[in-house]
Each structure stands twice: as C-alpha cells, then as structure tokens.
Amino acid sequence: MRPLAVLVAAGAVTPVGLRSIDTAFSHRAAAAAMREAPLLDAKGEPVTMCFLPTLDPLATGASRAALLGARALGEALEKLGPAARGLRMQMALCLDEHLGQRQPGGEVPAQRLAAELAARAEAHAPGISVKVATRGPAGPGFLLPELCDALARGAIDAALLGGVHTDYDPARIAALDAAGRIFRPDNLDALIPGECAAFVVLMRPDVARRAQLRDQGQIVGLATAHERARPDNDESAFQASGLTAALRTALAPLSDRGLRAGWMLTDLTFETFRHFELQAASVRTQQLFCDPQQVESPAQRIGHLGAAAMPLHLSIASEAFTRGFAPHPCAVSLAGSDGGERAAMVVVAPG
C-alpha cells in the first residue's frame, strides 16, 4: 500500500509531558492532569482545567499558545538534526477558530502566532513557507491533501504539520462558560479546558531514506466531511452521515487489501452529542474494524485538544509504533470542529 506520507519526527507538549515520548507514555499509563486553574468562571469560582504548571501563570491566549508551539516545534525540528537545513520545507499550522477573529485593537492573533513560530522554524530550515488554517480540530484533515500532493510532486521535501491550542485565557473561559460548555459536577455534558501543541514532520518514503531518517508511521488514508450537529444547535447527532462517509473513505485503502483497523484516537471530550455521533458511525462501519477496537480519547484526561488533536494523535501513534506499545498496527485519528467539519485519517505502523 503506497503511503500518502511517512512520519519521520514528532514533537509534543501537553499537561502530562514536555516531549512527545513523555506524553505518549503518560497517555499509555492513563495519566490525568485535572487541577484547579487560576482562572474564574462567571460565578467567581476557579475552573477545573488541564494546563502546564511550568508556564508563566500570567501568560494567556495567543502569547501562551506561542510558548506551547515553540516547545513542540523545537522538538520536532531538533529530531531532524542537520538534515533540516538542506530540505525544502513547508509548515502547515492549525489553530482554533477564535484565533482567526480580529480583536478590538485590529490584531488577528493567528497571524501573530504564525509569524512567531515561522521565525523559530526559519532558524532550523531557512526559506520555510507557512500556511495557516483556523478551522479547529478538523483543520489538519483539510490541509493534509495539499501537503501530500506537494510531497508527491516533489515541490517540497518535507511538510511540517502542527497544531497549537490553549483554553488558558479569561476571554476563552468566559465564552465557554457562557455557552455552558465547561465541565463541573453539575454540568457533565461539557469539556474540560486544556492546552497542548504538537508538530510532526512528513516526507515521501524515498526522501526520508535519502535523508537517513527513520520511518515512524505511514499515513495511508484521509477524508473530510461535514456534520449538521454542532454544539450550538439541536440537530440529531445520530445522523452521523458525514463522519460515516469520512471513515469509509479514509479506511478504503485498508479494506481494499483485506485489512482492518483496531485502534482509534479521537478528540472526544464529555460532550454527549459527539459520543452519539461516533456510536452511530461506528455501527455503520463495523466491518472496517477488528479487535481490539481500542478507542482512546486523550481529551478526557489531559483536557480539550482543540486544533492540536490530530498532530497529537500522530505523535502518540509514531511513538507507540516505534517503541512497540501500540495496541494495533492500524490506527484511525478522528477530529471534529465546532462548525461541523469532520476529519478521519489512517496511520499504520512502518512496513
């Protein structure tokens, strides 16, 4: 099966790990990161959140996101070593929807954040180009086809796919609280605010071999779709037509060869409509899965993943494949944005 791209390096920072391997092993051990945050809800009560206690507690919003992104980006580029300077590289940065909105002062946080991370990447890979998407968790699924096409045509040697997310911001907490989406004992149908960042480096197999970089996983399937059910409406999540179609399309390269997936990584929090959607889609695509059918939702232990969800899934999968603790050699990454966008991606262990 010909991969769309291979993973050769990953970097991640989460509330349970400052590097990708730390996060992967902590995730495997079911580590949880909930704690009382120095941020208050509308009632003046501290918010339960998953956040990095090693960061400046006064850093919030886009400034804090830049600190998270710099750590994960630095790790991924560091793993490339000297090879990075000789590569034609493009960075695809995925951010949450609200960062793309113009602020009262006229600034668009996503633009400033992208400029800061691009400057850091430039030091490792001169001439790197940057593309930004503020489409939330499903954003990587909409950017990857363009990246994989550029790799296939030889227009670039490497693609740097990353996502950065933080809810550690008074304005963000206020917006989530107003929408009734913050998890507390009397509001279980909600999410636990969180923060994380992850970057992965993708290449064509032959380019990776020439650069003497190890194949840590292969992306073999990808699909996107839209759902009508969103956090702000009452559409039935059990329709799940978009997610069902995305799963069938993404898993087609496996099923065409008589293979099935046994591991699923999702961005699900505790919001029930997304669980109903996955239940419906899973029943309709059951023939594409096999035992152990392990479903993992890191956001339920380390907080909302936002736009970093799919890059983090790839980081966890690459570490698990490389170090031998993946529950199955074929994994599916699922993510959904508040606007109804859905993305499904299939990554398999190196052949």
Automatic annotation (TrEMBL):
GO terms for molecular function: acyltransferase activity. It comes from Sorangium cellulosum (Polyangium cellulosum). This is Beta-ketoacyl synthase N-terminal domain-containing protein. InterPro entries: Thiolase-like (IPR016039). The lineage of its organism: Bacteria, Pseudomonadati, Myxococcota, Polyangia, Polyangiales. It comes from the Bacteria.
